[in-house]
Amino acid sequence: MDGNSAVVVGGGIGGLAAAIGLHRIGWQVTVVERASTLEDAGAGISLAANGLRALDELGVGEAVRNAARGQYSGGTRTPRGRWLARMDGSALERAVGTPIMGIPRATLHRLLRDALPAEALLTGAEADSLQQVSPGTVRVDRSGTVLEADLVVAADGIGSPMRSRLFPAHPGPAYSGSTVLRAITEHPVDPGTDFELTWGPGAEFGHIAFPDGRAEWHAVLNLPAGTRFADPLAELRRRFGTWHDPIPALLDATRPTAVLHHDVHELRTPLPSYTAGRTALLGDAAHAMTPNLGQGACQALEDAVTLAAALATAPTVQAALAHYDAERRPRGQAVARAARQAGRMGQQLSHPVAIALRNTAMRLTPSRAATRMILRHHAWVPPRLN
Length: 386
Ligand code: FAD
Description:
37% helix; FAD/NAD(P)-binding domain; 13 helices; 6-stranded mixed beta sheet; 7-stranded mixed beta sheet; binds flavin-adenine dinucleotide; alpha/beta; 19 strands
């Protein structure tokens, strides 16, 4: 192998996972993160079997499972509470060894950070240029430091400056048509189930329960990009306050300042490659997708393990990158398409006739068929790192 040092741009879930993978195969790795403190400020996240298997390969699966809660019960409902589909976490567990697990993002992020040597993380450092020399060079601005490495991993998120530099003709992210508000409750609540999604016209409310009794909830609305509310919690009470239990109780258990509000963007135009020269794009930088399948971070974790395994076995960095692109691009782009489609048939649907047809189809779908559909994305087997 003609390389053993890497610079990872971005210290999100994808960048940290990539750094852990590289560290595990014996590479020297530096993570460059522009934020001054390294933490993922999002609310909660669900991890499916594919993401958890990737975490196992990175050596952090057990720690993540211990800090997460298995999502055994729940499903999809109408605003009046009628079940459209029930989720059977035990069936998933029998099929792929685990139910979906729910965990606060901050906890997942901390567990990933803990798996890296402290000196591998440079915070408050913005990568501002990428020179494709051989070996690859990335420039960190604050101190003017130049980090030279054999490989650069661009894990700099949906707005990826690295992607813009490497693919200047690519149009970048597009607005999905939906905006999302979310929070973690201030104190334990009893939502009755582990995980639910409720679909009304052009709107969704969902929750994930955590091991400590708190829950994360999210509300998705079809609205123009940039729409903001003076009092988000009051607006959500107005829109969702008459929906079934536990929705009003979840809103009541939330501090107004805890509500996060983001417009949902995605990389609708697929990238022609996940690599360019000695750079690999990974996570949202490569395939930002709508959150409708809960797969964005899981795909980033798959990317990380696949990249590290390719570098561990291929004769050259270029050969490893070719393998990474061939393995990851079809998969990541297929999951992104499926997520977009799930959003269109789910939360985004607003015409009453279309909603009635969808709801009938969902009620008539046998739970085994529904489980098979979920498993299509979850049944991924990672390459071995050790
Ligand atoms: P990011 O987390 O965006 O990290 C990029 C990092 O790069 C940031 O820390 C940024 O500061 C840094 N950076 C950017 N530019 C530079 C630079 N020039 N120099 C240095 N640093 C830089 N996925 C799931 O698997 N399950 C879920 O349940 C789920 N729920 C979701 C719910 C919502 C509402 C949303 C929006 C997404 C959800 N996702 C979910 C998707 C998931 O959150 C993302 O796919 C994942 O966090 C992407 O991680 P990343 O590391 O690629 O990017």
